[in-house]
Amino acid sequence: MNLTIDHVSKRFGNKIALEEVTLVLTTGVYGILGSNGSGKTTLMRILASVMKPTTGTVYLNGQDIVQMDHQYRELIGYLPQHVGLYKNFTAEKLLKYTAALKGLAKEETNKKVAEVLTLVGLSDVRKGKVGKFSGGMKRRIGIAQALLNDPKILIVDEPTAGLDPKERIRFRNLLSQISKDRIVLLSTHIVSDIEFIAKEILMLKNGKMISQETPQTLLKGIEDKVWSVLVTEEEMLYYQNNFKVGNINRVQDKCNIRMVSDSKPHETAVREVPNLEDLYLYYFDEEQPEHATT
């Protein structure tokens, strides 16, 4: 399976949300990194066939998805960041209702609902009302809805926002599990969510695709740009004002600062092994990444 985005741009009046984005996606998990306003959600909405590009074309196995119309939409599973759920419905009733909207045959619905409930770990609460579910359970019922039609392309926008560490781990393992024969596109601010499951990371900045590489390749590109230095409380302000500082750990009466810098920030600075939070900080310094405790 091959999903090709060919010089896709999207404009809203005078605002350019996406500019000449070109990339190729095949089976596996892709993580999208970018700060607010980078174009992540716009790209995902175009790929989900919720929105049409201003210019450019998206192809699935060589076919224009606009011309494919409903044939393409039948292959899509889409979980937006904010999804409305009928709070008084049980999990089972909600999924059966969604299955009907998706056009699943009645004889197929019961089997498919049971299957996705098991997959997302909610079989034991299938009779429970969705309104009483935790945030993590609601995100899982959301992904269950998206999987009802057995989509070949699964698009998930900020799936772990607001979840506790246990639910976050559960959710990213679920996405990894179901990516075996699908294209899974995952947008997030929490970089640890994609560090171990994404085969490639797409980096968007100001509507432009600035990189499409494996996590290992991206990290290799900044392996000489991550430093730590032990400074006094008074010196800390200087580094915060002049460098891209990630973490500050207090060590007795001093501070150990981790930062990204193209050059050695101080003669006593020590080079550190980079991670994806450092990568985010290096490219998107206007906004700090969210830290996930695992």
From TrEMBL:
<keyword id="KW-0813">Transport</keyword>
<keyword id="KW-0547">Nucleotide-binding</keyword>
<dbReference type="GO" id="GO:0005524">
    <property type="term" value="F:ATP binding"/>
</dbReference>
<dbReference type="InterPro" id="IPR017871">
    <property type="entry name" value="ABC_transporter-like_CS"/>
</dbReference>
<comment type="similarity">
    <text>Belongs to the ABC transporter superfamily.</text>
</comment>
<dbReference type="InterPro" id="IPR003439">
    <property type="entry name" value="ABC_transporter-like_ATP-bd"/>
</dbReference>
<protein>
    <submittedName>
        <fullName>ABC transporter ATP-binding protein</fullName>
    </submittedName>
</protein>
<feature type="domain" description="ABC transporter">
    <location>
        <begin position="3"/>
        <end position="231"/>
    </location>
</feature>
<dbReference type="InterPro" id="IPR027417">
    <property type="entry name" value="P-loop_NTPase"/>
</dbReference>
<keyword id="KW-0067">ATP-binding</keyword>
<dbReference type="InterPro" id="IPR003593">
    <property type="entry name" value="AAA+_ATPase"/>
</dbReference>
<dbReference type="Pfam" id="PF00005">
    <property type="entry name" value="ABC_tran"/>
</dbReference>
